[in-house]
Design a protein that fits this description.
Layout: H1 2-5, E1 9-13, H2 18-29, E2 34-39, H3 42-51, E3 58-62, H4 68-75, E4 80-83, H5 90-95, H6 97-117, E5 122-128, H7 137-155, E6 161-167, E7 169-170, H8 177-186, E8 191-193, E9 199-203, H9 205-218, E10 224-227, E11 230-233, H10 234-245, E12 258-260, H11 276-281, E13 283-284, E14 288-291, E15 307-308, H12 312-317, H13 324-331
Parallel strand pairs: 1-2, 1-4, 2-3, 4-5, 5-6, 6-10, 7-9, 8-12
Antiparallel strand pairs: 9-11, 10-14, 13-14, 13-15
Length: about 325
């Protein structure tokens, strides 16, 4: 991490979110020269400034990725851009598709455009597994954001290296499932589950930041890094959450009921990390699946400790959700 950040000027869009904060912390620990935290979340910027009031390396910049002038100005004199700004809630994007398009697609276009013109060394888009075979607005807009990144990398219009990191659910991120469960338990329940068969890929915040950093370091341009994550049955997650959280608020876990409310528009029973085409061309390391850009398909592409995947489909067909004991460990 020190090799990546030391002496560099960093810009983080959506920098007040969980991933943005994690990247900020890592950059500070590992010798970054300066960090611009760019967000339209005024209160989030205020909180972040209070937490880091004595650190002169951080600039807190209010703005919107949809505004070209704001993006152009914030990206000037930047070495690395971590593009984490997005509308990420499935139901909100379904209700507000135009907003999702302008933030997730147009905002990414602005980041791509001005990173190229300003000579940024590397741009990393933080994407989501919902971009794989999307059925909803959020996934579709993030898929197009990925395409903007990989297309620019393939065009070679600039020396900037563009890459994507496609994450699953990040435990304890802002607005995610665990804080919502805790809020419902605090009220005495019930906690709301869409479907008992629903499964999702999860990772922790620390692991997500570690993998984003490693992907950034080895990126050649145009690839999508897909961290290998734990598959969790949401019904198991909810039961473990009851056991861990209910006593904190004076309840027995058995007192907290689970209410099944049905799937919402734009949701799937299970998300996948790669689509059919990507599975056929993926490269593998112990931590990632790496989807090379189109111009590398059929050619030998080298990443440290990587090899061609012989049967990536089997990884998903044979993948079993982790046990409740393992979920306990993750939540700890």
């Amino acid at each position: 991490m020190e090799d990546l950040f030391k002496g560099k000027n960093i810009t983080i869009t959506g920098g007040t979110g969980t991933i943005g904060r994690g990247i900020l912390t890592s950059a500070l620990k590992n010798g970054a020269n300066s960090i611009k935290v760019f967000s339209n979340d005024e209160f989030g910027l205020y909180e972040l400034e209070e937490e880091n009031y004595s650190n002169k390396k951080i600039q807190y910049i209010i703005g919107d990725v949809r505004d070209e002038d704001s993006v152009r100005n914030v990206i000037k004199k930047t070495d690395l851009v971590f593009h984490a700004a997005a509308l990420k809630h499935v139901d909100r994007c379904e209700l507000n598709p135009f907003e999702a398009i302008t933030v997730n697609i147009n905002g990414t276009r602005n980041v791509v455009k001005f990173s190229s013109s300003e000579g940024v060394k590397k741009v990393i888009l933080i994407s989501t597994d919902k971009a794989v075979n999307p059925i909803g607005v959020m996934g579709a807009t993030k898929l197009l954001a990925e395409k903007l990144i990989t297309s620019e990398a393939i065009s070679r219009r600039s020396t900037t290296i563009f890459t994507c990191v496609r994450l699953g659910n990040v435990i304890q991120s802002r607005g995610s499932i665990i804080p919502r469960i805790e809020s419902q338990i605090q009220r005495g329940g019930p906690i709301t589950l869409t479907d008992k068969k629903m499964k999702r890929f999860f990772t922790t915040v620390d692991n997500a930041i570690k993998l984003i950093t490693r992907a950034t370091k080895i990126a050649n341009g145009g690839e999508i890094f897909v961290p290998k994550m734990n598959l969790i049955n949401l019904d198991d997650l909810f039961e473990v959450a009851k056991e861990k959280i209910a006593p904190k608020y004076g309840f027995k876990p058995t007192n907290i009921k689970t209410k099944v409310i049905g799937m919402r528009p734009g949701e799937k029973l299970i998300e996948y990390l790669l689509n059919e085409y990507e599975m056929n061309h993926a490269i593998e390391t112990s931590e990632f699946f790496i989807i090379p850009p189109l111009q590398y398909v059929g050619k030998k592409v080298s990443y440290p400790h990587s090899h061609k995947v012989t049967n990536v489909k089997r990884y998903f067909s044979d993948l079993i959700p982790i046990s409740r004991k393992e979920i306990h460990k993750m939540l700890d």
